[in-house]
Write a structure and sequence with these properties.
By secondary structure, the chain is of the alpha+beta class. The strands form five sheets. Strands 1, 5, 6, 7, 11 and 12 form a six-stranded mixed beta sheet that branches. Strands 2-8 form a two-stranded antiparallel sheet. Helix 1 packs across helix 2.
Length: 291
């Protein structure tokens, strides 16, 4: 499963330590100590954890992992008054720009870290954000799953993916960072994207890479060769060495093709000249004989 953390502007994880659902003036520095997202690349997501989906059905995370199909995972809470709504809007907007369809090329799993929420909250959130995604991408929403669960399962999942959050005892609101994660089909954490806005290009390349080439086309594979995922920024950047190699290879192909054409041309020139000389010599002999 692929966990991707999204960000409006490429920034390192530490820059999101102070994002919370409370105004800065109401959030004490001590509250931010245990808040953030720690990258646990290649760690295994516990696929046997049990939750309930938006219909109230008991499910496990493993139900959404299929061969060749990566997963976008994020932890939110559906009644969040601030960041979570922005994160889900950003996620829906970015995914709506992809040519991939949730439920076909990949899956999306959003898990509430608020144990007080239930399937009704999840269903309302699904209705809202599927509608947002369908502004550009028409889908029945079957590939985006909204889950709720009990505190032990929530905590185990959060610890496994490096998602650290804190609940304010007075306001009962959660202080947390924002991000989405890309997970491979086998449940290994592959990439993180931070923030509340996400690059469709980065997500597309991340999904292709996490799928191990099972989705995408030849052009996508070339782009993956030229671009490299940077865990520090949570974005893809140009791999200069690979671009130079590709450009060098293209130059060699062009030069090689040119030399082959010239060689073949030069090879035929002497033969053409010899034939012309024979014709001229034959013409001269005929002219002499007639004289």
């Amino acid at each position: 499963m692929l966990l991707a953390a999204t960000m409006a502007v490429a920034q390192p994880p530490s820059s999101f330590q102070d994002q919370s659902t409370q105004p800065a003036s109401q959030t004490a520095p001590a509250d931010l100590k245990n808040v953030g997202i720690d990258q646990k690349l290649n760690a295994q997501v516990p696929l046997d954890l049990q939750f309930k989906d938006e219909s109230g059905k008991s499910v496990t995370l493993g139900d959404y992992f299929h061969a060749g199909r990566p997963v976008i995972l994020n932890l939110v809470y559906y009644t969040c008054p601030m960041l979570c709504g922005e994160e889900l809007i950003g996620e829906a907007s970015a995914l709506s720009m992809l040519t991939f369809t949730p439920g076909k090329e990949y899956e999306i799993v959003s898990v509430s870290f608020n144990p007080d929420e239930g399937p009704k909250d999840a269903a309302a959130a699904k209705h809202t954000y599927i509608a947002r995604m369908n502004e550009h991408l028409k889908t029945d929403g079957a590939g985006w799953h909204f889950l709720t669960g009990e505190q032990p399962q929530i905590r185990q999942l959060a610890d496994a993916v490096g998602f650290r959050f804190h609940r304010d005892p007075e306001s009962k609101q959660f202080i947390h960072a924002t991000g989405i994660m890309l997970v491979t089909p086998s449940g290994k954490l592959a990439q993180y994207y931070y923030g509340v806005e996400y690059s469709p290009k980065d997500i597309r390349l991340g999904l292709i890479e996490a799928s191990r080439g099972n989705i995408g086309n030849v052009v996508d594979q070339v782009l993956l060769f030229c671009y490299h995922y940077d865990p520090k920024t949570g974005r893809y950047g140009a791999a200069v060495t690979n671009i130079m190699r590709l450009a060098g290879a293209a130059t060699m192909l062009v030069l090689g093709g040119f030399l082959i054409v010239m060689f073949r041309r030069d090879k035929h020139v002497p033969a053409a000249r010899a034939a012309r000389d024979r014709d001229e010599e034959s013409g001269d002999k005929k002219g002499t004989g007639q004289a």
